[in-house]
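Following up on my earlier thread - several people asked me to post the actual chain instead of describing it. Fair enough. Here it is, all 405 residues.
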Amino acid sequence: MPTGHPRLRAETPCQRLTCMGTLACRQNDDNPILGPPGNQALFTNRCNRSLNLCNHFLKKRRAPIEGSTLLLAAIVVALALLFDFSNGFHDAANVVATIITTGALSPKKALAMAAICEFIGPFLFGTAVAQTIGKNIIDISTVDPMFLSLSICLIIAALIGAIAWNLLTWFFGIPSSSSHALVGGMVGAVLVAYGPDKILWKGLLYVVASLIFSPFLGLLFGFLFVKATFRLAQNATPKAKFFFNRMQILSSITLSLSHGANDAQKSMGLITMCLVILGISPTFKIPTWVIFGCAASIALGTASGGWRIIKTLGFKIYRLRSVHAFCAQTSSAAVILGAALLGGPVSTTHVVSSSIMGVGAGSRISAVRWGVAKNIVVAWFITIPAAAIIAAVSFYLIRMIHPDF
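Reply from S.P.:
Thanks for posting it. Predicted structure:
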C-alpha cells in the first residue's frame, strides 16, 4: 500500500480490497474499466459502503470459545440440571400429595401426569421468573473479565448450597423451599466472593417479598375458597365426592403446569447468567436448549417422587378429603401461576403447605395439626441463611481445592 494515502491503510481483507479499488480509481483518470473521472466519486461511495458492510460482519463474528470456558459452562449446566432434578424430586409432593391422599389417582398415574405437565409448563408461560433470577439479584454487568472463574465459582457454590439443603430436608421429610435455598445460596456465595456491592438489593427485596407474601396468599385463598365451596355445595349428596375427585385431576394439572413454569425457570436464569458472564451468549436471552434441559430435569425429578414429603403434606398437616384437596390445589395453582406470569419466584412448597393450612382452618381450625405446621414454618425461615452458609463454605472449599478459581 503506497504511503501517500494514509487514510487508506487497511487491516482486514475487506478493508484491503476496498482500499485497492478506491486507489485504482484515484490513480487512473481514464480507466477503461472504472470509466471517466466523473464516476470516481460514485465508485468511492460504493467502496465505502462495502467497507462498512464488511466491518459490520467482522464485528458480529465471534472469537472461538476456549476449552476452559466450555468446561466451566458444562459444570454449571450439569449442577443446574441436578438442582432441577432435586427440585422436582423434592417438590413432587407439592403437586401430587393431595390427589394421592384422597385416592383420586394412583401414585404412578399421579406422578406420570405431573411429570408431563411439569415439562410442558416452562414452554407455555414465558421466562419472566428466569429474567428475575438471572438479572435482578447479582449485578453481572460489572463482572471483571479478568476474574471470570471467580464469578463461575460463586454460581457453582450457590448451586451446591441449594442442592445440599434440598437433600437434607428431603431426608428428614421437611417440606422446605427449593426457591429459598437457591436464593440463599446465591446471596451467600456472592457475599464471600465479591461482598455486598455486587448484590442488587432492590431486585433481591422483590424476590424476598415474593417468597414471603406468597404463603400468606396461599393461606388466604385456601381459607376463602373452601368456605365458598362449602357454601355452594351445602346441599350436595354423597355423590359430590366423585365430582371433586374428577375436579382434582384438573386442578392437579393446573398446579403441575404452574410449578413447572415457576420452578424450572430459576435454573434457566442461573445457566443463562453463566453464559453471559463467560461471553458465550452476548445478551441475556434464554436459549431453547436451556428451557428444554431444565424442563426435562424437573420432570424426571417429579416422576421419581419424594415420598417422605408426600406423607407430611398429605397426612400430617390436615387429614384431607376430596373437597379439601381440590380447594388446596386450586388456590395454590392460582397463586403460583400468577407469580410466574409476573416474574415473581415464589416457593411452591410454601404456597401448597399454606393452602392446606388455610383449607383446614376454613373447615375446622382445631383439626389442623399446628405443631407440624410450626416445624414447617421454622424450616421456611432457616432455609435462606442455612443455604447461604453452605454455599459460602462450598465457595471456600472450592477455592482451597482449586486455587485457580
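Residues 6-60 form one domain. That should answer part of your original question.
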